[in-house]
Specification:
By secondary structure, the protein is mostly beta strands. The chain has one helix at about 1-15, and strands spanning about 25-30, 35-40, 45-55, 65-80, 85-95, 105-120, 125-135, 145-150, 150-155, 160-165, 165-175, 180-184.
């Protein structure tokens, strides 16, 4: 009885996992910590990347954890305005029609049975041979397009901070064309 219950649970696992919602996760790609960093005009101070789970045939997330690009956010130090640092935030959204079906190859087995029947002298002869070959069909692929939001200007003075995507950018000091900052 226990073996039957375990087998049923193992068979149901992919169906339960297929019910997980399709989510987009955003990760900070630049270093985080209390270390003071420096930047010059044009340098990226924060960079986020977003990944979206591939939807499966029933609309849930891919059980193998495959994802597709969903865009990202970049914060760039543009320069200074007096004693204040000027940043530019750029958000890009990537839309894709990728699914588990469009990104998975197919392997189709093809079986052939050959039968030989006849006589050799006065003896009846009968034989059967079975062979299997496989046809590989590559994934059909998907398409995607990116849209960029209008850049947002952010101005911060010494000691001021701003929170972006759940992370804090704090300005330590601003000089003529340089910036010292911390990402927490």
């Amino acid at each position: 009885m226990k073996k039957t219950a375990l087998a049923a649970a193992l068979l149901a696992l992919p169906f339960i996992a297929s019910c997980a919602p399709v989510e987009t996760k955003t990760s900070l790609m630049t270093p985080v910590g209390t270390q003071i960093r420096s930047a010059g005009p044009g340098d990226v101070v924060m960079s986020f990347q977003s990944r979206k789970a591939l939807p499966n045939v029933v609309g849930g997330a891919d059980i193998f954890g495959r994802t597709t690009n969903a865009g990202g956010t970049t914060v760039r130090f543009v320069g200074t305005q007096g004693s204040r640092a000027v940043f530019e935030r750029m958000d890009v959204t990537v839309e894709s029609n990728a699914t588990t079906m469009s990104e998975s190859p197919m392997i189709i087995p093809q079986s052939t049975t050959t039968t030989v029947q006849g006589t050799v002298g006065r003896t009846d002869v009968y034989g059967t041979a079975r062979s299997t070959s496989y046809q590989y069909i590559p994934p059909r692929g998907s398409s995607q397009y990116a849209t960029a939001q209008r850049p947002i200007a952010i101005t911060l003075g010494n000691g001021q901070s701003v929170t972006i995507q759940g992370r804090t950018l704090r300005v330590v000091s601003v000089s003529a064309n340089a910036l010292k900052y911390v990402v927490e």
